[in-house]
Design brief:
Length: 310
């Protein structure tokens, strides 16, 4: 249209953007600031305008037995077995809040479902729609819906299917790709009386956020947290202070420096001892080196010792 010098309307531009987004050839970028509430409404409008609805994309799951791809149906009905993905966990006053995206079928409150990772059978708990910090009770969740379950037992990335699904038809959805952390920082609680609260906070955040990791370094006796950026780690440190009343300190991780020999070195040792009677004398000599890569810092010695003397 541009080359033909025809007028291009806003609807033409929006349609072109959506077509290229659906084929993953174009990625819209929206600038804004959540802190100052700038561009948030524009971002939401772009999500509604350009991103696909469930009927416009093909979603696949993996059959647990044959490992073949299975096309999910976006039909909002009970005709197909229910399949949902738990993609986010959050603690709430009522227990664990599990955000689940429905890919097929329908989950009704009180019906039974199976966690395909653990094989555990659970009853579908209370279902709610989330509106910021407010909840709206619903009795069922259909394909395409994003709802929250209160009280479900699972981990982030788990797949739930209808308990009536035949064993050979059970499928698992592919969980989100989680990149490796790009930054690590040491964290410690200031007061030892808060050790329990500190441990609970870290365990909770690791469970809720798959990009956040926490490990204990036994060599340096310190806890190292890792994430996708310094801001993320600062936010979690602040949440520990605010939500658990536990004062913590962030810092750079301690690094242990190790030394080894770069080349072979000759050595000699002389031992002399006179105890008033028969004296003792000995001399040792040899070569010591790092032992090569396979020996991992091993030691080789060639020694010869002298004899006692009077």
């Amino acid at each position: 249209m541009y080359l033909m010098e025809e007028n291009i309307s806003n609807s033409d531009i929006k349609s072109a953007i959506k077509r290229t987004v659906l084929t993953q050839n174009f990625t819209p970028v929206v600038a804004g600031s959540a802190l100052k509430n700038k561009g948030v409404q524009t971002l939401l409008d772009c999500v509604n305008t350009y991103l696909p609805n469930p009927s416009e994309v093909d979603n696949y799951a993996i059959n647990a037995v044959t490992e073949e791809k299975v096309l999910m149906s976006s039909e909002r009905s009970l005709a197909n077995p229910a399949v949902g993905l738990a993609f986010k966990l959050e603690e709430s006053p009522y227990g664990q809040l599990t955000y689940i995206r429905m890919y097929q079928g329908c989950f009704k409150r009180g019906s039974n479902m199976i966690n395909t990772r653990t094989g555990e059978k659970q009853r579908v708990p209370r279902l709610v729609l989330m509106h910021s910090n407010e909840t709206e009770n619903v009795t069922a969740a259909y394909s395409g819906d994003i709802v929250a379950m209160i009280g479900a037992t699972c981990a982030s990335g788990d797949t739930f299917v209808d308990a009536k699904t035949p064993k050979n038809d059970i499928v698992s959805l592919e969980s989100m790709f989680i990149p490796d952390p790009v930054i690590s920082m040491a964290i410690k609680n200031i007061h030892h009386k808060d050790d329990d609260k500190f441990s609970k906070a870290l365990a909770r955040f690791v469970k809720e956020d798959p990009t956040f990791r926490s490990i204990f370094n036994p060599e340096n006796k310190e806890i190292v947290i890792s994430g996708m950026g310094e801001l993320q780690l600062d936010i979690y440190a602040e949440r520990i202070r605010r939500e658990y009343d536990c004062e913590v300190k962030l810092g750079e991780p301690t690094v242990n420096y190790r030394e080894t020999l770069s080349d072979a070195v000759d050595f000699s040792v002389t031992y002399k001892r006179q105890s008033g009677g028969r004296g003792q004398f000995g001399e040792g000599y040899g070569e010591i080196d790092s032992g090569g890569r396979q020996r991992r810092g091993g030691v080789r010695q060639r020694c010869h010792w002298g004899h006692d003397y009077q």
